[in-house]
Specification:
By secondary structure, the chain is of the alpha/beta class. The protein has five helices and seven strands. The chain has helices at residues 36-44, 95-111, 130-141, 158-172, 190-201, and strands at residues 2-12, 25-30, 62-70, 77-84, 115-123, 146-151, 179-181. A seven-stranded mixed beta sheet has the order 1-3-4-2-5-6-7, with helices on both faces. A hairpin with a 6-residue loop joins β3 (62-70) and β4 (77-84). The chain is globular. The two termini are 13 Å apart. The protein binds guanosine-5'-triphosphate (GTP) and magnesium ion.
């Protein structure tokens, strides 16, 4: 799978601001600062496509990108959408703004007709928190396919990785769950993720 083009489309805080064109889509969600925007930049290989910040709470809107995928051997370009969602669990947000967040994200999930799967990002160094688990359960309950990605995999060694992945599976209550380790600075996990995208986004 090759990404031949990646462009920013739109930012939305309401449904009427979503892009008009509906494309098979993958959305990225996770706690604030987990590395969603970095992963999008690594995946597309465009450093500044999504804004990254060391301060949590950077992404506050739903950001849509369009990619053109070329499948090995084929000539066709398949347009797909990539959706960067604002992070949850940012400690400094008020209860009120958390409610607004939940409504806003739920509205996206429940109305995104072409949403094929969601990547739930978890920091490989931490055991999933209550909010991560709730997010995971919510997606499963709503029959939205989930790929769990363990981000910042470059920050720990090989053995610690294995231990952490097992702890994550346990915390999410699914012992056979596939969890893809990802290291954005090294693009590690990139080709595996592209394969999953091909499977879900290009029929
Ligand atoms: P919000 O938009 O606030 O929800 O955050 P986000 O999930 O988009 O995180 P972002 O990509 O902005 O990354 C947060 C911080 O983690 C930045 O300082 C990144 O450089 C760093 N980071 C992200 N991914 C990785 C990774 O795979 N490895 C390492 N070492 N650092 C990473
Ligand atoms: Mg972000």
């Amino acid at each position: 799978v090759v990404i031949t083009k990646a462009t920013y489309l739109a930012s939305a805080v309401r449904r009427d601001q979503y892009p008009e064109e509906c494309r098979p889509a993958v959305a990225f969600i996770g706690r604030s600062n987990v590395g969603k925007s970095s992963l999008i930049n690594s995946l597309t290989r465009i450093r500044q496509l999504a804004r990254v910040s060391s301060k949590p709470g950077k992404t506050q809107t739903i950001n849509f990108y369009e990619l053109l995928l070329k499948i090995d051997g084929g000539e066709a370009r398949h347009p797909v959408h990539l959706v960067d969602l604002p992070g949850y669990g940012y400690a400094k947000t008020s209860r009120e703004s958390r409610k607004v967040w939940a409504k806003f994200i739920e509205e996206y999930f429940l109305h995104a007709e072409e949403l094929r799967f969601v990547c739930l990002l978890l920091d490989i160094r931490h055991t999933p928190m209550e909010s991560d688990r709730r997010m995971f359960d919510w997606l499963v309950e709503h029959d939205i396919p989930v790929l769990v990605i363990a981000t910042k995999a470059d920050k720990i060694g090989r053995n610690a990785r294995r231990t952490q992945i097992a702890a994550m599976q346990k915390a999410l209550g699914v012992s056979e769950l596939t969890i893809l380790p990802y290291a954005s600075p090294k693009n590690e996990g990139r080709s595996e993720l592209l394969d999953v995208m091909k499977e879900y986004l290009v029929e």
